[in-house]
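User: Good morning. I'm curious how tetrahydrodeoxyuridine would be positioned relative to this chain. Could you predict the structure with it bound?
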Amino acid sequence: MKPSHPLTHDEQDRLAAAAAAAALNAYAPYSRFRVGAAVLDSDGRLHTGCNVENASYGLCLCAERNALSTALGTGARRFRGIGVACIDAAPGLGLEGRTPCGACRQWMVELAPDAEVVIAGGDGRQPMAVWPVSALLPDAFRLT
Ligand code: THU
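Assistant: Good morning! Here's the predicted structure, ligand included:
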């Protein structure tokens, strides 16, 4: 789905910066890979989340799903942007080390189908890439 109201450059910068700030709260003692996410709702409100790991590794929660569920919990239902910052990715690592995992893409398709995803750059701030959610998971599974 095409974003009806594309993010401005200022909104992209704000999403990247908010995601990088949220990553500082990550609970990532096992991977030591801190991730932050920020979600911009249709009322202009930002909601953030970080990854939260667990000794039972399969229970780790990604930053993107944390931010989305936090936003849903405040009543927000429509989203225009999702920022993601992997602040511990090696400086030379490109997009492959910074993009949302498959599970988070499936959540985005269901909960934020019209949003654009902003990947924060190596310095954790300037956007490195911007994609519509639909481009991240073509032919996604849906029940509705
Ligand atoms: N992680 C995220 O928070 N988001 C992603 O999209 C990919 C991975 C987290 C999960 C785990 O805590 C750490 O990064 C290393 O995989």
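The mean pLDDT is 94. Residues 9-136 form a domain with the Cytidine Deaminase; domain 2 fold (CATH 3.40.140.10).
Let me know if you'd like a different ligand tried.
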